[in-house]
Amino acid sequence: MARINLLPWRAERRKLREREFYMQLGMAFAAALVVLIAWSYWMGARVDNQNDRNTYLQGEIKQLDDRIAKIKDLEKVRAGLLQRKQIIEQLQANRSQMVHLFDELVKTIPASARLGSMKQSGDSMSLDGVAQSNSSVAEYMRNIEASPWMGHVDLRKTENTHEDQRMPYTFGVDVKLNTPSTDGPAPSSSVAPAPASTAAAAVPAPLATAARAVSGSPAPAPAGSARPAAAPAPAMAPPSTAAAPAGAKP
């Protein structure tokens, strides 16, 4: 005999499926919530770590800024010291310049001119004075340009004021100063011996004959003739110029 179930099993199965669906939905929501919370904590940790790194970098940047400021101050001090060093070297190099300039001023000025004032500014000098004529001024300018310590010269003014009968012309020149590398070649202490022909030509014949007679040296051979080689004569002591003592025999 067949058994027939008249209960609403379809509704119960539907309710069971709905219950399973809601349970799965709740589990998915709970899992999503857990993932979201974990992700938020992880992102917060990353943000805090990045903030810590930024704080550390800002501190390092501040220290570097302080060091850069100190380096700039040291560079300013270094530039000042270098400038002082250059000034001292320049003064050391030009300490004898004024002595040479005054010496050159005395050497270059002609007798028909006279200086009234001078002013030096760096590597230029302004000279003012009086002269007898314009030719005296031109001669003075040529002498200045020929000097090793003074170079190019520009005529600033020249006029006849008739204030002085001897030197009626007043002039003003601007001179460019030079610094030669060396004052000049050092004079040699040794003098090169003169050629024999020049020495013989400079001495008169009678004096040469008398000197040969006293020293006993042979007469010089004429030019172009062969002269046999001879042993060098012993050097003779020069005659003493001191006075002989009283009672000594010659």
Automatic annotation (TrEMBL):
Chain positions covered by the region annotation Disordered: 174-250
Transmembrane segment boundaries: 21-42
Any coiled-coil regions, as ranges: none
Biased composition (Low complexity): 185-250
Tree of life domain: Bacteria
The keyword Membrane is annotated on this UniProt entry: yes
Annotated keywords: Membrane, Transmembrane, Transmembrane helix
Name under which the protein is recorded: Fimbrial assembly protein
